[in-house]
Write a structure and sequence with these properties.
Length: about 325
């Protein structure tokens, strides 16, 4: 599955009422979020038009079970409840518009980003693809684990992407990722982060190493720490992340990678294979089908001849026995 990430402050997002856009430090994608300015957003807060097969809104509020509404295309408004996020994974491939509404300013609803599930019609070039840490295109080596050394909790802001993270506490742990694009970013998190903590890693992009440390503004036990970012020429690239120093009890987590695509669609995405083609039953050729039919007919003819022969043999045997019994009775 290929997914696009759209930031709250992207020009692709259209706001329908007065809003407040904020720059923050950590916990939000691209360090930004947007909230409503007053209670006039009940008829529509923002909307996004996309091509694909699914959409997800990542947001939060200050109270569980806050009511909000969502409308897809020309459908009706549908009331939602929860912390503000919304997911609709099953849509026919094509053009769609999602409209999101919330009007309780006192609950401080925040919108962080959208995720669009790509389909055959989705334009991908220059759009940002998000790759979860559990994706098979990320190749881990070393002592990575999927559970942190201590409980990794988050507040009512955004959680880790898909609630998954790969954690490292050991020098020499590596992860390799191949992609076709013109920029790349690695997002993660830290646990047991203290003022005395030390961390470094090399980010080798096409054999050129860069050294990274704990990013400014990173907070303990909270996501969206930008570990690495680079702009590059469009084309095929390889990124290798190698942990070179980490002071106990610090743990670093890889949450997701995002990159701007240098290809137009799923059909031209290097290495992409549709899940539907993987699950489709094998098709027989015309020759194989014809051979099966001819073989079946031949087998049926042999079965009929055998049955006829057996029936005639049984009939002749029965007549001979009846004649013998009659002659014994006569004499």
């Amino acid at each position: 599955m290929v997914e696009l990430i759209v930031d709250d402050q992207s020009p692709q997002v259209e706001y329908l009422c007065p809003v407040i856009k904020q720059q923050v430090s950590g916990t939000y994608f691209n360090n930004t979020w947007t909230t409503i300015a007053d209670n006039r957003c009940g008829g529509g807060w923002f909307q996004h038009t996309f091509y694909g097969t699914g959409v997800q809104v990542i947001g939060s509020s200050s109270r569980v079970n806050q009511n909000h509404s969502v409308k897809i295309d020309e459908g009706p408004w549908v009331k939602q409840s929860g912390l503000g996020s919304f997911k609709l994974p099953l849509l026919p491939d094509g053009r769609h518009t999602i409209v999101y509404a919330a009007d309780e300013k006192d609950l401080f609803p925040t919108f962080d980003y959208l995720v669009v599930t790509a389909g055959p019609s989705t334009p991908l070039r220059h759009n940002s693809i998000i790759v979860d840490d559990t994706d098979s295109t990320l190749v881990y080596s070393g002592h990575w684990r999927t559970q942190p050394t201590r409980s990794f909790s988050h507040d009512s802001s955004t959680a880790t992407f898909k609630n998954t993270t790969h954690w490292s506490t050991a020098v020499g742990d590596t992860v390799k990722f191949q992609f076709n694009g013109d920029s790349i970013n690695v997002f993660g998190a830290f646990t047991n982060l203290m003022p005395s903590s030390n961390f470094s890693a090399t980010y080798t992009l096409d054999s050129v190493p860069f050294t990274g440390y704990i990013p400014s503004g990173a907070l303990d036990n909270l996501p969206m720490a930008k570990l690495f970012g680079a702009d590059i020429d469009p084309g095929d690239h390889i990124l290798v992340v190698n942990v070179t120093h980490i002071s106990p009890p610090l743990a670093v987590g890889i949450d997701f990678i995002s990159y701007n695509a240098s290809f137009d669609s799923l059909a031209s995405m290097p290495g992409y294979t549709s899940s539907s083609s993987l699950s489709s039953p094998p098709r027989l050729s015309a020759g194989a089908i014809a051979g099966s039919v001819i073989g079946g007919v031949a087998l049926l003819v042999v079965a009929l001849v055998t049955a006829m022969f057996f029936w005639r043999w049984r009939r002749g045997t029965r007549r001979r026995k009846e004649g013998k019994r009659w002659s014994e009775l006569k004499f």
